Amino acid sequence: MAGLIAYGAYVPYHRLARADVAAVLGTPAGKGTRAVAGYDEDTTSMAVEAARGALVPDGLRPRIGQLFLATAAPAYLDKTNATAVHAALGLDEHVLAADMAGSVRSGLGALVTAARSTVPTLTVLSDLRTGLPGSSDESAGGDGAAAFVFGGHRDSTPVIAELLAHDTVSDEILDRWRLPGSPTSRVWEERFAEEIYVDLAGKALGAALDRAGLDITAVDHLIVTGLHARACAAVRRKAGARPEAVTADLTAAIGNPGTAQPGLLLADVLDRARPGETIALVVLGDGAGVILLRTTDALPAHRGARPVAAQIAAGSAPMPYATYLSWRGLLDREPPRRPDPEPPYAPPAHRRNGWKYGFVASRCEKCGTRHLPPDRVCTSCRSVDAMTDEPMADARGTVATFTVDRLAHTPSPPMLVVVVDYDGGGRFRCQLTDATEADAAIGARVEMTFRRTVTAAGVHNYFWKARPLRTDED
After folding, report:
1. Which of 31, 32, 39 is nearest to 13 (CA)?
2. Are 105 and 66 in contact (CB under 8 A)?
3. pLDDT tens digits, residue range 297-348?
4. Which residues pair with 182 in a beta bridge?
5. Global pTM?
């Protein structure tokens, strides 16, 4: 049986209330909130967080044969962004890592390509949506990521959702576009493409159902996604599915994360679906695509490590609108009167890839001392070159001491710096993110997260930070 064998989702911690935007700009008040990527997050770092959730099953990581990263907002052009995700996950060097970038439809392309693959394939959908102040893209947009592993052809890993059928139709529709270098999109009047998308969705959905030998009434969960809100609503109404099968799009809680929306909505359905249920994922954008899945008895025991609903509920109190504008580069703030940060340099960064991207420490084979960063000489027994790699990305720890630095160069002052004592040994000093000053406390429990520490001279410096442990698992 071929199909989906694992999944994970990532919803950023921060929120922006639409009513706060309206209060500042004097526009009609919107309802709900949107998810906001932190000042130290981008589509690459969010992709890492989603993929880490998908690779929780023991023994799955070494089986991955290829990795695709889909995003409409890549952190780099020319350079492959998926290779940073590959390095952070510690995948084998022979695993193909490639981007599918430039449009929201790339998410559909990555999912269909992964579903067709004959080797276990990790596909990650990640997006960061930005619009001009007061625009619908700003208020209705959102940020997030989702990851899926397809396989099962010759793999012993249980399939949690069997692939029944898929179909795509393509059409050149100028309803949304963004020129290279522009931070925001332009949108045609919505009524223009509404009926076009309804017709295309009907063709793709009908073809997929025919291949699977199903009727639309047999679908237990109908997911319709896309940035054209009117068209999505019309497809939900006209598809003919049972009313209880039509799923909510989560826009009121976290907004529409574009490329990542199909992944987040599919992950949310998988979090609560029962075995034997049929899922139809319909994606609109420059055409339409449909993926049909049927959940198996293995799903309840292999659900995502962090349910989407739990991540939504754990979001922060709404942030000030001015802070959001500053993080997105739409409001310039006076920087700290300190020297500008320097970019990381390629040669030393490459030599320490395991530590920098994978957060791989070392442990002495003689006395068991853990070293962060990794070292050749043991600080305890002085043994030389008697070390084994010690992955620390999933380690948890306790804050031993902390500093609140109000002078350091950061887009979100003050900078919180903590010294962490890790479970099982080892101590390291790093930044604390997704936190307030009250979260920086001796004895606080933390976990690690992959972030962008600084961007200087056009170069992103990725590394690991600590964040408060807000789950019940410890």
Report:
1. 39
2. no
3. 999 999 998 999 999 999 999 999 999 999 999 998 887 777 888 888 999 9
4. none
5. 0.96
